[in-house]
Amino acid sequence: MQESVLGLDIGSKKIKAVLYSGSGLEGGRVLAAETVDIGEDGGFENALKKLAENSIFQNVSCCVLLPFDQVMFRQVYFPFRDDSKIRKALDFELEPLVFLPRDEIIADYFKTPSGHLLVAVAARKYIRDLINAVEENLTEVFAVDISPTALSLSSALWESKPEKSGMVVDIGDDCTIAAFYEDGALIQIRSFAFGGDLLTSALAEEMKIDGKKARQILIDPNREADTGSCADICRNFCQELKNTVEVMKISQALKKDPADILITGVGSLFASVRRELENYFSAPVSILDLANLRKIKIEENLKEKYQSQIMNTALAAALRVFSGRKSINFRQGEFAAKRKRFSAKEQLRWAAMIAAAIICLFIANQLLDFGLQARRLHVIKKQISFIFKKNYPDAPVMVDPLQQLKTKLAENRKVFGLQEGAREIAVADLLKEISRLVPSSVDMVISDFSYEGSVALIKGQTDSIDSVSRARNELMKSEYFKDVVMGQTSLKKDDAKVDFSLRIELK
Length: 507
Fold this sequence. Notes:
Nucleotidyltransferase, domain 5; Gyrase A, domain 2; alpha/beta; 6-stranded mixed sheet; 14 helices
């Protein structure tokens, strides 16, 4: 099922918004993308209101990424791994490690392979104000995350080679964030005082030009290596990043040097930064294009607004709901997302609609069931009539077929003398016995013969009643016959013949 999710990356200067529609991490579409300058639009809430002018951003679920300067990271260790115990003890463990009182912070964490917890901490007041502002001015918030975790989980760089180590470096305007992963898990996050604004200011001052021209020079892909202050700033950053990796290796938080370096953000557009990173780490440096990595289609009308290096974080926020892995979420506890409450009037309206639908379905079901039952009854009646006429063709009328057939069967049993233990004689033997015993002088023609159970019925014609008696007397001499009874006899007028019937009961 397709779901539309809004990813909102809130920076210190800009808000980036991406609306993603899809049913998973791959194969969806970016329906809308927007970047709003907080300063130019008169503050954070006004910037949200400007986004809300585009109705496509309203009435959808939203994942918000916090500005990195509002989050503190700490690493702690507990001798137990049970989440319920960790959450009870976490605030007490963090109290001496952060500058805010315990009741004014909210924290969430990752479990690292080394057994430590990577904890993200933010101020409760800031989270409360942020959620209220977004929900009052734009749309509902289902999660509050941070960009490094959203980027790492949405790109899932370790899926193909879980044993590899690497880092995702998000070079923003005023801050750079590095997320380190190894053994299929995120293990550390670090921030650095390095960004696109710092390089732009240095180049503008060095070349005596304005910031716009300096930025255009920096993003020129054909630009040669930096010199002067820009080169020093890049080298200092790369050296600081490399020192961080060495410290992590010494502390055994990281086992080996990063084999892959993925960069995003405005700084990834600077060729000089990519070159310095490659020189310092001797590892391939690639630019993250999350939409291309996840085979996500960008609408044609968004080509100018959507620049992958800039919008990766907002897209990662939208994809967070589909990642299937645990991420940081400050929308918990007192800030946990609540279901929307419907008004009593709206509840009654929905209840009435549902009740009407149920009643209609019930009536339709009853009518349909009645029609099917009537049709089935008609078919059964036809079958009963067919069976009755087949087995009782001379019945005057069918009133109670079951009782009538039972009565007929009882009569037949009585007439034919059906009983258990009757002696079984082959029909051919029975006819042979009758032919042997009837005198040859008796002119007798058998026109009907029936044999069932221990009774045989013979009907035919002869020349006189005496002949019937003689035949009956001779048949009584058979060792097979228990009794021979003469039935009704009648004289035919046309040819002076006698119709007779004999009932032979076998021994």
